[in-house]
Design a protein that fits this description.
The chain contains 2 helices and 10 strands. It has 146 residues and is α+β, with helices and mostly antiparallel strands. A hairpin with a 5-residue loop joins strand 4 and strand 5. The N terminus is likely disordered.
């Protein structure tokens, strides 16, 4: 019985990972990040760091892939991401603003105040779609604020 309880606790902890959810208020409601995909054809350059990270420079914005914490894999089903692909950074800014305004409205109704917008880009879960030979790969990335 203890083993089953321990497995349940671990699975809920893992599924409630820091990278899938965000909070606008300390100790407040955790919201699931909406997922968006960035096409590699708008990429300016890729920088490989000494510690194995990759920095994708796209339209003067930086996106970091860290193999120690981020997912990288081969895309099998293209239907899952087609309606969430973005072709430019302005679209990401707009989606991020929409996400903030929607969740801030919920918090204002619940707690009576509107939270300030986050200073970092933490509201969206982002993946870069990269073509390699005949396969399509996805890289989970963090949007790095300058």
């Amino acid at each position: 019985m203890r083993i089953i309880l321990l497995i349940f606790i671990l699975s809920t902890t893992i599924s409630f990972s820091q990278n899938d959810y965000y909070q606008l208020v300390k100790n407040g409601t955790k919201f699931k990040k909406p997922i968006y995909y960035i096409l590699e054809n708008i990429m300016d350059t890729i920088i490989h760091t000494a510690d194995g990270k990759q920095i994708f420079l796209i339209q003067k914005e930086r996106f970091e892939y860290d193999p120690n914490i981020h997912f990288k894999g081969k895309v099998v089903d293209s239907i899952n991401y087609r309606n969430r692909i973005t072709a430019n950074i302005q679209t990401l800014y707009n989606r991020e603003e929409e996400e903030y305004l929607t969740k801030a409205r919920i918090i204002k109704n619940d707690l009576g105040f509107k939270p300030i917008p986050p200073l970092t880009h933490k509201l969206l879960k982002l993946f870069i779609l990269k073509q390699k030979e005949a396969s399509l790969y996805i890289y989970e990335v963090n949007w790095i604020s300058e």
